[in-house]
Amino acid sequence: MKNVLRVDASMRNEGSVSxxxxxxxxSKLTAGDQVNVTERDLASxxxxxxxxxxxxxxxxxxxxTPEQKATLATSDEMVQELRDxxxxxxxxxxxxxxxxxxxKAWIDLIARARETFRYSEEGPVGLLTGKKVYxxxxxxxxxxxxxxxxxxxxxxxxxxxMGLTDVTFIDGSGLxxxxxxxxxxxxxxxxxx
Length: 193
Hints:
- 36% of the residues lie in helices and 22% in strands.
- By secondary structure, it is α/β, with parallel strands linked by helices.
- α6 links the parallel β6 and β7 (166-172).
- α1 (17-30) packs parallel to α7 (181-190).
- It starts with a strand and ends with a helix.
């Protein structure tokens, strides 16, 4: 059975273009196959890392106290969702020229040494290899690839850092400037293998 992890970063449940496009992408990815879809809706709330979280994270796993393990429980669950996934769908709008704070918080909780990457003599090595990632990006006025696109390069870098190197962007950006942008994004989805 194939496992798909869906991460929604829009704070809107109703009328969200990124969620709508992600629905279509998930339908495409699950058509005709036995697929388990795990959903991580960041609008439901994401904890922020804290001093106690950092202390727990940097403590050797064999030496963590029960309190430290509890502090890392949500992060551990999120990391396991990534490990279990064959395909990852991240759906995000652009808020104030970047990803929503909840998506940044999710990244902070999953980018963990010894868990999703490790350091070697040659530098960092990503541990989440062999997975396909689709990033659905929507925005009103920030077009992907433009001078004010601070999302695609950052997301690609941080995903690559964790070993997620097969990344495809579904471009639903610049909706205020192109009334056909949603249809173009839907066409990109239709062409997904």
